[in-house]
Amino acid sequence: MSEAARAQLVLQARGLGKRYGELPVFSGISLDLRAGELVALLGESGCGKSTLLNCLAGLDSVEAGEVRLLDQPLSALPEPAQAALRRRALGFVFQAFHVLPQLSVADNVALPLLLLGRPDAARVQQLLEAVGLAGLGERAPRQLSGGQLQRVAIARALVHRPALVLADEPTGNLDPRHAAQVLELLRAQCRQEGAACLLVTHSERAAVSADRCLRMDAEGLQPWSPSPH
Ligand SMILES: Nc1ncnc2c1ncn2[C@@H]1O[C@H](COP(=O)(O)OP(=O)(O)OP(=O)(O)O)[C@@H](O)[C@H]1O
């Protein structure tokens, strides 16, 4: 691989294998994600997409293989170094949002910046506006709808300009207008900030807007082309 190609690599996974007890979830998964690309990950429910995202982030362990994030061996780093790299380089949109109920909407979005010691109220406001939540920053999460909470989670994942965004069905609870807005935001994050984004989706519409698509099945990850509309 050339130096230029290596420099573009944000994430490199090789030979990942995962099982829950006796149940194999996946094996032999390899994946490269480059700066600026939006990659859609599709596959049947239960095939292991969320588990793979967790393993790529180092939030779940693998039995085999290696994950390199920004050319550092994430899975081999001691936990404090792993946490520091994750905090700096990663934005994660969880399927279940994981918005903290005791913090306001704006404080939830601000959290990654605070953990990095870089508070930036203007950036928080910019993200709230970008996801269509301007004016709701002072609300408590319990006062928001499911779709609004999903957008809080997306704003929080992007606010610190991470090199890698892992997004687990980020448009699953959104109407078409907000789904398009969120996809546009993820794309802008890739284009403007040079981030890589791996987007788990069941939506062919979302897949069409990706730079490339991967389908996950028992054989591993295969390149896939969505049918044009
Ligand atoms: N903590 C766990 N313990 C045991 N089995 C688990 C655990 N988490 C997930 N699984 C199993 O691992 C497999 C993969 O689950 P996963 O959530 O990764 O699938 P998915 O492709 O993301 O599904 P969906 O599209 O429905 O979100 C499933 O068979 C699931 O039942």
Automatic annotation (TrEMBL):
Q: Determine if Cell inner membrane is one of this entry's keywords.
A: no
Care to name a GO molecular-function term for this sequence?
transmembrane transporter activity
Task: Name the Pfam families for this protein.
Answer: ABC_tran
Top-level division of the source organism's lineage: Bacteria
A single GO CC term for this protein reads: plasma membrane
Which PROSITE patterns does the record cross-reference, listed alphabetically? Answer: ABC_TRANSPORTER_1, ABC_TRANSPORTER_2
Taking every annotated instance into account, which residue ranges of this chain make up the domain ABC transporter? 11-229
SUPFAM superfamilies on file: P-loop containing nucleoside triphosphate hydrolases
- InterPro entries in the record: AAA+_ATPase, ABC_transporter-like_ATP-bd, ABC_transporter-like_CS, ABC_transpr_LolD-like, MacB-like_ATP-bd, P-loop_NTPase
Keywords from UniProt, A to Z, are: ATP-binding, Cell membrane, Membrane, Nucleotide-binding, Transport
Q: Which PANTHER family match?
A: IMPORT ATP-BINDING PROTEIN, TRANSPORTER, PUTATIVE-RELATED
What is the name of this protein?
Answer: Putative ABC transport system ATP-binding protein
Q: Please report the organism this UniProt entry assigns to the protein.
A: Roseateles asaccharophilus
